[in-house]
Design goal:
Elements (H helix, E strand, L loop, with lengths): L1 H43 L3 H13 L1 H28 L9 E2 L12 E2 L6
Helix pairs in contact: 1-3, 2-3
Length: 120
């Protein structure tokens, strides 16, 4: 009986240890990607100003884009920069970025939105 339980326990332990190794291999990549995303968003946050001026100007005209788009860009600059700083501070917890698009250059003609964090 002891031999039978040992023969069943050994494969279970082996499978469990392999699953932990599979997760451990991807954790550094996820943490590094979150850190890189945070740094990129802190550094490029100011680009939200001309981006929003272009988007708003294309929808409602050049004058409106230069005024309202400028102020909307300032708000999104603060949002992207603070989001990047939070990503840098919490990079050890692998969550998705709350800013969409994740990088400003991903879809330059799309308005910036904010979502909730999710685990990667």
């Amino acid at each position: 009986m002891k031999r039978a339980s040992l023969s069943l326990l050994a494969p279970a332990i082996l499978c469990l240890s392999l699953s932990f190794n599979a997760q451990a291999d991807t954790y550094p990549e996820k943490a590094g990607e979150k850190l890189a995303t945070g740094v990129a968003n802190v550094v490029t946050g100011f680009v939200e100003i001309p981006k929003n001026m272009m988007i708003t100007g294309g929808k409602k005209g050049a004058i409106y884009g230069m005024t309202a788009g400028f102020f909307v860009g300032i708000v999104h600059t603060v949002g992207r920069t603070v989001s990047g700083a939070v990503d840098i501070a919490t990079f050890v917890i692998p969550t998705t970025s709350i800013v969409k698009p994740t990088f400003i250059w991903d879809d330059f003609n799309r308005e910036t939105t904010y979502t909730t964090w999710r685990m990667r």
